Amino acid sequence: MRFKVTVLPGDGIGPEVTAEAVRVLQDVAAIDGYRFDFEEHAIGGAAIREFGSPLPTKTLDACLASDAVLLGAVGAPEYDRLPPNQRPEAGLLLLRRALGGYANLRPAISFKPIAACSPLRPEISDGADILIVRELLGGLYFGEPRGFAGANGSTVASNTMSYSVEEIERIARIAFVAARQRRGKVTSVDKANVLETSQLWRQTVTRVAQDYPDVTLDHLYVDACAMHLIANPRRFDVLLTENLFGDILSDEAAVIAGSLGMLASATIGGEVGLYEPVHGSAPDIVGQGIANPCGAIASAAMMLRHSANLEQEACDIELAIQHVLEAGYRTPDIAAGTGGYMATTSEIGELVCQAVTEIVDMRHAYHAV
Question: How much is the pTM?
């Protein structure tokens, strides 16, 4: 098998964590006899410095020509004073739109070895395993008209939230299919008591649910959902949301894992999938070797699952991360109250590689018997 990956290390800690994700992928390829071809390009602040654009044409062309895109992080504070369409984050938004991925998948899992890192009591968070399915190309982030109007001190800013039936239906089907492979429940999040877009959202999701009689559907207002995520996260299986609500709720769900550094994401639905950790560029810890690469490595696992159709290999990586945590290895963001051994970014990457090799060897030995 030959699989082409465009790697976008990006800004801040992006290059550090992406390097470990690539190392794990190379290890998997070597073990299982696959060929993964990696081609690195600039995006975000790094691309502005080198090319004067947050998404150079060369980068976009490479992404469109690949089988998948692995991204580190985007965001550089030195460019915050630029107009919004010239900032590093604009490159990511343009890339998402160009790749056509409309479904963002964000797992939020409680890992027992680092449960003490979560502000939630263990009896609340233990066993929580949520997949947030966020619509990514609609809503307030892309709606028109938008912008500023007025003068002489009476400036008005506006954004437009809009959704079509087609946009809602296609993201809903992603959620229902995912639920069939998990525990068979979808919770759809909206604000249908106030917003017309949410009323259409609820009507459409309810209709789509009729095609999936084996999946249970319930609805929650977004404010109630935010409360239940903290009070009773185990009630959720698949959480289906529009763009803005999903952005907020998925970051809130980081409390379940105990750190943003543990969270992976996949953007699918377009011609090329985009995979990235959730944590952002974290400029305050750049170059210190303490960034948590688990989110980036788990994103690489999601890439194997959704773009390469390598489910077993994806599971091997996810299990390897679990084994490393169970062995007590920690980066600072997941060390509080958990004991264990402090490890650098690269050491965690190496430990995951070792764990993957051991897992594959054990599986092969089992099948040989």
Answer: 0.93
